[in-house]
Batch of 2 targets.
Target 1
Amino acid sequence: MNSLNSIILEGRLTRNPEERTHKGEVTLCEMNLASNRIYRKADDKEEEVSFFDVECWGRIAENCLKYLEKGRSVRVVGRLKQNRWKKDGMNHSKVIIVAEHIEFRNEHKGEHHVG
């Protein structure tokens, strides 16, 4: 039985999406997303910014590469994935978001397009 692994995240792209190919045929798109959180601390407003690596595959990746660019607001629905590797005898790991659905946000008209 699978455990629950689901995430919804909104933010802005910090760079243009980058294309990769996997095994020479499947399109992979890698992006970086900044998500802001504003909260009160005493009488002041504080802002916390978190940065997340996002990857998507296939048709979603192709649409992201075609329509998205740095600064664009998106909503990502997906799952967390932990990549692990060894380098110079040391274990390393990194958690990324694998997007299963991406909404392209359009702040000017309040509309969105699904990728």
Note: The chain has a mean pLDDT of 90.
Target 2
Amino acid sequence: MKKYLKGLSLVLFLATLAFIIQNITSNYFKLETLTWGILIGMAWVNLVGTSKKYDCGIAFCQKKMLKTGIVLLGFKMSAEGIKTLGIKSIFIVILYVILATSLAIIFQRILKVNKKTAMLIGLGSSICGASAVVALSDSIEAKKEDTAVAVSVVSLLGAIGVMGYTFIFKLYPMNQIHYGLWSGLTLHGVAHAIAAAGAGGAVAKEMGTMIKLIRVLMLVPVSLLLSKIFGVKEKSAKLPGYVLGFCITTAIGLSGFLPSNIVDLLLKISDFLILLAMTGLGLSVDFKNIKNEIGSAITHGAIIFGILSCIGFVLTMMI
């Protein structure tokens, strides 16, 4: 437990700071606490820095607390929200993954990016960010360097996307359902999608979470397909356990079995855990680690993100 304490303490301190700043500035500058958490985390790691002794605690917040927060978020899902998505959302997600992968290949050739790095950036952009990059790297037998570059690129672009989408919503408010679906369909990681969608309100957050988790479901079929294409045996990715957990809590929430005060408490815990995860996410965006990838890899990822964001906006209008 000791190895986690320093990192956990730092994340808790910065998350509390994010909460305080959001309260102070809310009357003048509309920015969500989750976005403040990412910004403060990024500022801290790049201006103050952290040593390796903080890594375990920060990683724990990024992974375990985020997953727990997502599972608890299932209690908030509504039958109306699930009905809104419908079966066509699955086909739209499949189309989105195909488009993202195709764009990654096309621009890899134009920009002369390493083939496997480009493929991983495309997969991270279309499925679930850094988690997809790591999960699928074995399926294409990518080198560690390829994986590291792709993780850095999608993490940075995802964090920028959260801030960009939040500002867009504040400047040009749109329908919560469409904004949530747009965030969930086009932003890189699960954390990025939830943070951005949350800025649009409760309905937007619900929509963003559900369609993002449909994207996560693509991990298994995509990994099996890639393993076959690249001739890699026994390297398929497994479906994350938190997706099943989310489905279970959603079913419990829809059943009305739990009293409303208990559900409210669980949702507050979920919000708190996700805030810690967002702050930890900010602490992982160290510009020193990506200084050698500022060129073609980031350009590649940014172009894909820009095109997919526009296409995704149109696709969400069809749901």
Note: The chain has a mean pLDDT of 83.
